[in-house]
Amino acid sequence: MEVVIASSPVDAGIACWDLRSGSEQHRYRTCSSAAHGLLSVAGRFLAASQLRDSPSAASAPIFFWSWDKPQVEVRSFPAEPIGPLASNSEGTYIMGGGLSGSIFLWEVASGKLLKKWRAHYRSVTCLTLSSDESLLISGSEDGSVRVWSLMMMFDDIAMSAGSDQFRFSFSEHALRVMDIVSGHGLCNSIVISSSEDRTCKIWSLSEGKLLRSITFPSIIDAIRMDPGEHVFYAGGRDGKIYIAALNAECNPNSAHGMFIIGTLYDQSKAITCLAFSMDGVTLVSGSEDGFVRVWDTRTKHVTRVLKHAKGPINNVLIVRQPLYHTPISANSKHLNLLLPPPLSKYVDSVDGEVKTKTVIMPQRACHDPQDTRFFSSYVMEKQIKELQKRNTSGAAEMEIDKLRLECKRSVQLVLQWKKLYQDLQSLYASELIDGDQMSDS
């Protein structure tokens, strides 16, 4: 079941609705989230960065909620206020963008702060990962968009050499970056950024250059690509959702501007956030009037309107509710096993401590509510060394599995070559027949 989750910058909690029926499922208390600060961590729990109580406050917490409890269960207090949050699909890491322009990277299983680096001159406004999750893309108030290789961030030798930590730095925006989305295609994917300068810019991750710049009639605070990457949807402060083409030719006669091929509009206030359903046609928007609207992008009509609270909405997500979702009456101690410890405040560099890094284990059966995919690397290394010892049944099993995999790959390769040979044979036979018929005529 897909659910819509929305939060507000005022303390109105987090609302959760069934996407299909529109019925409210839960309401989580005590949340005044930052923009791009609401996160579903691998579907295991919710996380949200909080706004500061006052401008003079030195920091602001990050809250965790389990699916079945309305109250905050884990409170973390980073070294500085965190705005946008991001995590990989397995929920191994959480990344946060700081007010100072720094990016923080935490290990979820232990809560340890593994890395902190100065990414921008001013505060980080948005974060997203590439489709293969090897690159982190950040936007900032200074107008820059930067691409970071997560692998290189842990290369101490390269870092000490003094070279630029980022892979690309795009600085064509004149004002603050409001949102970033990344397409499919791994290293050949595109990235779209929106800014207060009323432009959305399309970048190439493989070439590191600007492909297209589109100017809109209004400031664009939220963008989402359709799954086919033919168009993208841009939510404006004028209450309209603009539809912009990614590959179309320039149309100087467009009523809204070049490359803008249409709009979605329902007399709402400024559009602050967008999310796409997995069906590829359902778009959800949040706005300053406190409503969540569900759109059918084929008909361009609103199919459902959901009321959040009195305050505006600044985050909206569409997530699959976990299959192990259990009622609130379940054993609370059992549910607490699903939540990680609080995120640490500083990078831990105590000498003599066992170094731990999160690794991803194969997923267990979906009906098992205990998420045990996350272990420390030293445990895995110990198991690997034991298996590598000679004359052990474990090592023999590993060799057998390896041989089976190689055999399977060889059979697949043979079948591919066989099919290719048959296709070529059919092609030559048809050409020969066609040639004989033409000569007879």
UniProtKB/TrEMBL annotation:
UniProt entry tagged with the keyword Lyase: no
Lineage top rank: taxon: Eukaryota
Protein name: Protein ROOT INITIATION DEFECTIVE 3
Gene3D superfamilies per the UniProt record, alphabetical: YVTN repeat-like/Quinoprotein amine dehydrogenase
Mapped WD repeat ranges: 117-150, 170-213, 264-305
Organism of derivation: Canna indica (Indian-shot)
Keywords: Repeat, WD repeat
GO CC field: nuclear pre-replicative complex; rixosome complex
One Pfam entry name: WD40
